[in-house]
Design goal:
Structural class: alpha+beta
Number of strands: 8
Strand order of the largest sheet: 1-2-6-7-8-4
Radius of gyration: 15 Å
Helix content: 10-25%
């Protein structure tokens, strides 16, 4: 897939801008399976890079997963020609990690899959791989709204 193969092209799919836009590319997506795969290249210039760790702490994987969910929402918006809905993480559960850090020079591969949708509530399973090794998993419970100010009173 080359459609969203750069950081700049992925930016068109997510609300995250500037330094908080973390994803480098979309690897694949499947609307029928409601899943998407993305990647992040870890460098010393990566947001959240910690010199003392020699990379990015693994807990940032939550944000990589969340932005991957945003990619899926952006792709659905493009397909249906509708503005993407705004999503908010309500909770992250079942987090498991086999490492403490995503090391400099590695490519973090993120896979997220929608497992449950009930009106505005949506649950996603997420997995993170480095060098084809599963290094982290989590479940994210989210809420998706058309107008955050109106729905959430923000």
């Amino acid at each position: 897939m080359t459609e969203f193969d750069t950081h700049e092209k992925v930016a068109a799919l997510v609300p995250h801008k500037g330094h908080m836009h973390l994803l480098d590319r979309v690897i694949s997506y499947d609307f029928e399976k409601t899943e998407v795969e993305t990647e992040v290249d870890i460098t010393e210039k990566s947001m959240f890079f910690e010199e003392s760790y020699g990379g990015v702490p693994v807990w940032i994987g939550f944000e990589y997963m969340a932005q991957s969910v945003s990619v899926m929402t952006g792709l659905v918006g493009l397909k249906t020609n509708t503005p993407p809905k705004m999503g908010f993480i309500l909770s992250v559960t079942n987090f498991r990690s086999e490492t403490n850090v995503f090391p400099v020079g590695s490519t973090v591969h993120i896979w997220v899959h929608q497992t449950v949708r009930m009106d505005m509530a949506v649950t996603f399973e997420g997995k993170i791989f480095v060098n084809d090794n599963l290094v982290a998993t989590a479940t994210m419970n989210t809420v998706e709204v058309d107008d955050p100010k109106k729905t959430l009173g923000v």
